[in-house]
């Protein structure tokens, strides 16, 4: 069993995606054993709705010893660090190699900012590509080794808001693939170095190659993720992995 803990600050979109990936068999023998947040947010509600242990914690406590204690108690194999806080050095040391973060840029470019701000900065800078990076966590923010990156060509008229859907979907797929790489002791499963796909009518290239699930092409699947808690998330579609 692969035990995963999420550290969150907001809507929990990536949390819901990984929960669906486990339910649909894209991430076999996985379980989310805890959701820890720095504020009450939608991620807590999702956890409670799905009977996942959850807690709001003060990340400003000295050396984050309260967080470190809970992580040791939960004993996760992987910690997804999508929380808007810098982790204490002691936590990075204790869980080195098991901490994975998702950033909305092609790191190391536009590191150190959160949410969609890296995309806005990239467009303002005039880049030809935007993207996402699932990477290991080190003591210096956004400097850990990239595990999976997705690259999206910029076209005339692109805006941050217009790119949100494709960036979010690429980020979810990158995160899932990064978790699968960590499960395989850091070795990509695919033999090909990269793969090109169409997402939201846009070209996206993943490196290394990622396993492709038929659900990635289903608009209803993504709508359910985005619309929570208004949309139900319990229908078993039984998507296949390519």
Task: Write up what this structure looks like.
The chain is of the alpha/beta class. It is built from seven helices and nine strands, in the order βαβαβαβαβαββαββα. It has helices at 13-23, 42-49, 65-74, 89-94, 117-125, 160-183, 219-227, and strands spanning 2-8, 30-37, 54-56, 78-82, 99-103, 129-136, 146-153, 195-199, 202-207. Strands 3-2-1-4-5-6-7-9-8 form a nine-stranded mixed sheet, with helices on both faces. Helix 1 (13-23) packs across helix 6 (160-183). The two termini are 22 Å apart.
Radius of gyration: 17 Å
Percent strand equals 15-25%
The profile of the biggest β sheet is: 9 strands, mixed
Low-confidence stretches: none
**Helical content, roughly?**
25-40%
| Structural class by helix and strand composition | alpha/beta
Mean pLDDT: 92
Q: How many H/I helices?
A: 7
Terminus-to-terminus distance: 22 Å
List keywords for this structure.
9 strands, alpha/beta, globular, 7 helices, 9-stranded mixed sheet
Q: Quick summary of this structure?
A:
This protein has 242 residues and is of the alpha/beta class. It has 7 helices and 9 strands, in the order βαβαβαβαβαββαββα.
Layout of secondary structure:
Elements: E1 2-8, H1 13-23, E2 30-37, H2 42-49, E3 54-56, H3 65-74, E4 78-82, H4 89-94, E5 99-103, H5 117-125, E6 129-136, E7 146-153, H6 160-183, E8 195-199, E9 202-207, H7 219-227
């Amino acid at each position: 069993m692969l035990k995963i803990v999420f550290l969150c600050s907001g809507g929990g979109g990536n949390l819901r995606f990984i929960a669906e990936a486990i339910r649909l068999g894209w991430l076999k023998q996985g379980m989310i054993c805890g959701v820890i947040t720095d504020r009450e947010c939608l991620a807590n509600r999702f956890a409670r709705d799905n009977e996942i242990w959850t807690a709001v914690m003060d990340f400003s406590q000295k050396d984050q010893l309260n967080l470190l204690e809970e992580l040791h108690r939960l004993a996760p194999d992987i910690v997804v660090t999508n929380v808007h806080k810098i982790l204490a050095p002691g936590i990075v040391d204790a869980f080195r190699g098991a901490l994975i973060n998702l950033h909305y840029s092609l790191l190391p470019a536009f590191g150190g900012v959160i949410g969609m701000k890296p995309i806005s900065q990239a467009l303002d800078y005039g880049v030809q590509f935007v993207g996402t990076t699932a990477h290991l966590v080190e003591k210096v923010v956004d400097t850990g080794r990239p595990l999976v990156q997705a690259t999206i060509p910029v076209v005339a008229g692109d805006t941050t808001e217009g790119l949100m859907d494709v960036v979010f979907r690429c980020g979810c797929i990158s995160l899932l693939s990064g978790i699968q790489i960590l499960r395989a002791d850091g070795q990509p499963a695919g033999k090909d170095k990269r793969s090109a796909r169409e997402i939201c009518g846009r070209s996206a290239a993943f490196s290394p190659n990622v396993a492709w699930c038929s659900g990635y092409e289903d608009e209803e699947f993504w709508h359910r993720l985005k619309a929570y808690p208004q949309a139900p998330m319990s229908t078993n579609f039984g998507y296949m992995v390519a």
